[in-house]
Write a structure and sequence with these properties.
The protein is an all-alpha fold. It contains 5 helices and no strands. The longest helix has 28 residues.
Length: 107
């Protein structure tokens, strides 16, 4: 982004908004037993967190996607709290950055 904090803030804002929607949709899909949808949401979170440079979240999302693709929905459900925790930690840091209170990097 070549030092353009305005663009970085915009990207972080979109990530927080879309990521929040994906987390909620993933939770709902897992509860409903909709494994194809859950797999898509986990994949989306994996990709967006990788694009943002958030390896801790990407790793958990990738593990969940792998479990879902292998048909192990029970193990994937067990990862939901960890995924949510990583997302919450990251979005807390991103919101600080968006509000110009600190760096975007972290999770």
């Amino acid at each position: 982004l070549m030092g353009n904090e305005e663009i970085a803030r915009s990207i972080c804002t979109v990530f927080v908004e879309e990521g929040s929607a994906n987390i909620e949709s993933l939770r709902e899909a897992l509860s409903a037993g909709d494994i194809p949808a859950a797999t898509r949401f986990a994949h989306s979170l994996k990709g967006s967190s990788a694009n943002l440079g958030a390896p801790a979240l990407r790793e958990v999302a990738a593990a969940m996607e792998k479990l879902l693709r292998s048909g192990d929905a029970l193990a994937a459900r067990a990862l939901m709290a960890r995924l949510s925790g990583r997302f919450d930690d990251l979005t807390h840091a991103l919101r600080r950055f968006i509000a110009d209170q600190g760096p975007c990097a972290g999770s």
